[in-house]
Write a structure and sequence with these properties.
Shape: globular
Distance between the termini: 22 Å
CATH architecture: Orthogonal Bundle
Radius of gyration: 12 Å
Strand content: 5-15%
Structural class: mainly alpha
CATH topology: Arc Repressor Mutant, subunit A
Length: 79
């Protein structure tokens, strides 16, 4: 999953994994994506690193956040 020896920053690797999962329908539109804490445990990265990956998904327009509920996949089809 995350390659600690890669020159690609870990947050970018995590972001790429999440984008792939959205494209593959693992997280379909309207579904909740894992929290930063859950991602950090799953991928073996720090919580701030996971937060940065999730923030980039929002900036890409692939997710939106509902305070107190989490982040959800938008209806936009990723390219």
């Amino acid at each position: 999953m995350i390659d600690p020896t890669s020159p690609i920053p870990r947050w970018q690797q995590a972001h790429a994994i999440l984008v792939d999962r959205i494209r593959a329908g693992v997280y379909p539109p309207g579904s909740r994506v894992p929290s930063a804490v859950a991602l950090s445990a799953e991928l073996g990265i720090s919580t701030p690193t996971a937060q940065k990956a999730l923030r980039q998904l929002r900036e890409d327009g692939l997710t939106y956040t509902v305070p107190g509920f989490g982040s959800f996949v938008t209806d936009r089809t990723p390219t």
